[in-house]
Automatic annotation (TrEMBL):
<feature type="signal peptide">
    <location>
        <begin position="1"/>
        <end position="22"/>
    </location>
</feature>
<keyword id="KW-0732">Signal</keyword>
<dbReference type="Pfam" id="PF16061">
    <property type="entry name" value="DUF4803"/>
</dbReference>
<dbReference type="InterPro" id="IPR032062">
    <property type="entry name" value="DUF4803"/>
</dbReference>
<protein>
    <submittedName>
        <fullName>AGAP000385-PC</fullName>
    </submittedName>
</protein>
Length: 672
């Protein structure tokens, strides 16, 4: 892990700073987006200007240079819309790796690639400066720019820079790597999988953004080279028809190769994204996590109080399932602690006498710690502001020992937050909104899984300005007309499990809602899926939207016994669940925490990539650190744009030129 920091540092700058002053174009770029069409048609415009006449002719600043102004405007718009993205991701770099020991080949490749991107960007900025009509430049300056751009004898010419870029992308010089893993996308995929939650993007998004950077650099370099040939031709230094055609062929070959590499890797790359834990000490309840409280909690009770006849003829182990506190015998310790008004389970005998440190009233704990006379400790012995209470078992009639037992209380009282909303959280399909993120929130003792929504645009893009969380309407389990099993689910000793599933939507569909249902005795995730017209950026067949989830009943349980409080873990959580597993919410370990805290917690951090995208699925996972209670966390699967990548082939260029020629001929005929 240590060697990955330079990879991340370079990558953060690189993938979110493609050619064009740190521009990251929308996720439909070079698929079917308007940006693609503009850039490619500009490329055709430039080629048409260069190839249209083999004789030197003066440049037309009123007509031909409109192309350069168009791309300059386009770049400025992209810069403005994406500036914040670099800042956001830059803040998360430190989450990836704490330190590193040495460099590796991927780091060096990314640094070299970044250098090329920046050099092309600098040349592009120079070209824009030359095109400013308010500050005309000398012909010599134009000539020098053009020659520096296309001079094959110079290692920093755009021609050579793009050749070197190709070598870095394809990995043609990486002879030590096995075939099929030499290209930069394959190497990046392997790196991204090991730090899945750290980039603010899914690995699939990360690969695609790097591809955008490379493809944008290729296109802009091509436009500069063709523009340079055009300048040189107007100055009578040749017609450069052969050279211009060669650059076009190289562009098409390189883009086609790059796109094929990306498609191959994207098919093997995860679209999953979930959140890393915050730094140790940075957890905040109801901000980074929420928790159920007093669900099944450690509780000290004398066996005499769990009988109706004041006898102690049994032992603690007899009281295993669903007993009650029937009385408070002689107002002993039972009168000094909150009564368990529910059911009592799994009692055990530890020692006859103890010192109990009670927790402050009104909180979620009953005890801070319990210290037994035999040296056994339950919880962490710290200061005890309210003072300890000495609690002693006793003998009755010489042969009955009335023991204090350590049990578990299931009491749905006012201090117990144990309710989960079964109401749906959905995007506004009528307004063409789709789900772009998930998070857990808790309102009035009720846990909700809610969605973030955003406006769907052509090419699968999302309008950043429309992103918003769909705030649930607060309700409580005591509200009039609210029903258990319909509006909410109550966790209890027998009904406290949750399924850990990934739910995927079919190709052509996106997620438009989430909801919990109760399947058997377990909470189970449902997704609403709706068909999407990718090109138009429209949801279709709204009435045909369907809810889907996993019906798997053969599952394995993740045991969570003897665990400590999750937020005390010495390291950040890692995924510890797989498909078709489940877990049960329950108490922390007796020795670690006196069984006072309900685990796992729920990760309440927003799970929404820094680059919003439609979702191809979502799920629930368990993440944690050994010996600590961990978190149930939402995860999302970002939409796979790889299937929409299209090659700007020779046929496309030829068809575009032919269409323009036909249109011009038709126009001339009409006028005649």
């Amino acid at each position: 892990m240590k060697m990955l920091l330079p990879v991340v540092t370079v990558l953060v700058v690189l993938v979110l700073a493609p050619a064009g002053h740190g521009v990251a174009i929308g996720p439909g770029w070079l698929a079917l987006s308007e940006t693609t069409k503009v850039l490619l048609r500009i490329a055709v415009d430039v080629a048409e200007m260069q190839l249209g006449d083999s004789k030197p002719s003066p440049i037309n600043f009123n007509q031909d240079l409109r192309i350069m102004h168009t791309i300059q405007t386009l770049s400025a718009e992209m810069r403005e819309s994406q500036t914040a993205m670099v800042d956001i991701l830059g803040q998360r770099v430190h989450d990836v790796i704490e330190s590193f020991g040495h460099r590796n080949r991927l780091v060096e490749r990314l640094e070299k690639l970044y250098m090329i991107v920046r050099l092309v960007e600098r040349r592009e900025a120079s070209m824009y400066q030359l095109l400013r009509t308010d500050t005309p430049v000398e012909q010599l300056t134009l000539t020098q720019f053009a020659q520096a751009t296309v001079d094959v004898s110079k290692s920093d010419s755009v021609i050579e820079l793009l050749h070197n870029l190709e070598l870095l992308v394809t990995g043609s010089t990486q002879v030590l790597l096995p075939p099929g893993r030499q290209d930069i996308f394959s190497q990046l995929n392997e790196t991204a999988r090991s730090v899945l939650c750290s980039f603010g993007l899914s690995p699939q998004q990360l690969i695609y953004v790097l591809y955008e950077s490379i493809a944008t650099t290729e296109l802009k370099g091509y436009i500069m080279m063709q523009f340079s040939y055009m300048l040189l031709k107007t100055q009578g230094q040749g017609n450069f028809t052969v050279e211009s055609q060669a650059r076009r062929n190289e562009l098409q070959t390189r883009l086609a190769r790059t796109q094929q590499l990306v498609r191959n890797v994207m098919n093997q790359t995860s679209g999953e994204y979930w959140r890393c834990d915050p730094d140790r000490g940075a957890h905040r309840e109801n901000v980074t996590y929420v928790q159920f409280t007093r669900l099944v909690q450690g509780y000290v009770e004398n066996e005499v109080d769990m009988t109706t006849d004041n006898t102690c003829r049994e032992t603690c182990s007899h009281y295993k399932y669903g007993h009650e506190q029937h009385q408070c015998y002689k107002e002993l310790y039972c009168s000094q602690q909150p009564k368990c008004a529910g059911r009592i389970y799994d009692c055990e005998y530890i020692d006859s006498d103890m010192w109990i440190c009670p927790a402050a009233p009104g909180g979620t704990r009953r005890y801070e710690y319990i210290e037994y006379e035999n040296g056994e400790m339950r919880g962490r012995k710290q200061s005890c502001p309210r003072g300890t209470t000495k609690v002693d078992s006793w003998w009755r009639w010489l042969f009955w020992h009335c023991s204090y037992c350590f049990c578990y209380c299931d009491d749905a009282g006012r201090h117990s937050d144990r309710y989960v909303s079964l109401r749906e959280s959905v995007s506004d399909m009528e307004q063409n909104r789709v789900v772009t993120g998930l998070r857990f929130v808790k309102r009035r003792q009720m846990v909700h899984l809610i969605v973030q929504q955003g406006l769907l645009l052509p090419g699968g893009e999302i309008a950043n300005s429309t992103l918003e969380w769909v705030v649930p309407k607060p309700f409580t389990h005591t509200d009039k007309g609210v029903r258990d099993g319909h509006d909410y689910h109550t966790l209890s000793y027998d009904r406290r499990a949750i399924d850990l599933d990934d739910v995927h939507v079919p190709p052509g569909y996106v997620v438009t809602g989430v909801q919990f249902r109760v399947l058997g005795a377990r909470l189970n995730l449902l997704l609403r899926m709706t068909e999407m017209n990718f090109t138009a950026g429209k949801l279709v067949g709204l009435d045909a939207s369907i809810w889907s989830g996993s019906l798997e009943t053969e599952r394995t349980e993740i045991p969570l016994k003897y665990m400590d409080v999750p937020t005390l873990a010495p390291a950040k959580s890692v995924p510890m669940s797989t498909q078709n597993q489940y877990l049960r919410f329950g108490p922390t370990g007796g020795r670690a925490d006196a069984a006072q805290t309900t685990i796992p917690f729920l990760d309440a951090q927003p799970v929404s990539p820094v680059r919003p995208t439609p979702l191809a699925g979502a799920g629930l996972m368990y993440k944690g650190v050994p010996k600590y209670g961990g978190f149930v966390a939402p995860k999302i699967m970002t939409y796979n744009f790889g299937a929409h990548i299209q090659d700007p082939t020779d046929d496309w260029f030829a068809a575009e030129l032919e269409a323009r020629s036909s249109a011009a001929a038709g126009g001339g005929s009409d006028s005649g």
